[in-house]
Amino acid sequence: MKRYETTVVFFFFAFWFLLAGSRANAEKPVVIFDQGHGQKFVVELEGDFHFSGLSGLFKHDGFEVETSTERINDKTLARADALVISGAFNPLSSSEIEAIIHFVESGGNLCIMLHVPQPAAELMSRLKIYASNGVVQERKNLIKQEPKEFYTSKLEKHAITKGVKRFAVHGGWALMNESKTGKIIAWSGPRAWIDLNRNNKFDSPPDAQQSFGIAVAGTLGKGHYVVFGDDAIFQNSFLVKENLALGKNLVKWLKSPGKHGMLTDRSPDSRKQTSAENFLDTKKDCRV
């Protein structure tokens, strides 16, 4: 009789622990990395330009990390709390864009990181964010004296930039924000420029020179989004020091419910921005 009771008790506790573990997994937030649009840099690989390090940050913060190589749709996003689209080379379709917008409006969180802008241009336009047709070149805070690689230290107060004094950019596109519920949270310096006539030297005019947006964050419906003009910021090789701190903040922000990222009001950007037609041309996107 005692052996029978012991067996029953054992199976009861075994079942309880199994059930508790299943509930814990079910309660984990889920982040989906889109890898169905020609991405060359992925979360499964450990190389310098891949995203296994960023994936590790998500896992460390309690996320279930998934990847998707299929077309993005409502069914795919139904299980997700956050969607990351990084380094897309093939354009998102209209139906995919509708599914993503619906996902964010319903409370999902979105992160876009650009390698080239064109594949995500239509999606960004729905967020009222526009990318330049050339990468930002700096004159100060350069990394290894390369104008396209620099530290940006003009950071606005935001949950993603909290405690971060600067971060490294390695070939970033300028971003313009025209949404009243979004704002630029990281800027280049005031003497940065974009080579609009592609002659590899600064000409004024036609080349644009000013502080350019490097990252934009905002809300849409019940969810929130962030766009980085550079996908290299969180690649393995560059996910160190300030970029690592930025990555940790990003993960926590993507874990939080929408509308809680902004630490300041969400009024339109106060800094002067060049008009869209002056330096934006999504039909000519080219990383140079």
Could you characterize what this model shows?
The protein is an alpha/beta fold and 288 residues long. It contains seven helices and 15 strands. The strands form four sheets. It has an eight-stranded mixed sheet. Strands 6-7-9 form a three-stranded antiparallel sheet. The longest helix has 26 residues. The protein is globular and about 50 Å long.
Q: In order across it, which strands form the biggest sheet? A: 2-1-3-4-15-14-11-8
Mean of residue pLDDT values: 86
Number of strands: 15
Number of helices: 7
Structural class computed from helices and strand pairing: alpha/beta
Largest beta-sheet details: 8 strands, mixed
What is the element string, with H for helices and E for strands? HEHEHEHEHEEEEEEEEEEEHH
Strand content: 15-25%
Quaternary organisation of the protein chains: single chain
Radius of gyration, in Å, reads 21 Å
Distance linking N and C termini = 79 Å
Shape: globular
Q: Can you tell me the residue ranges where pLDDT is under 50 for at least 5 consecutive residues?
A: 6-24, 259-268, 281-288
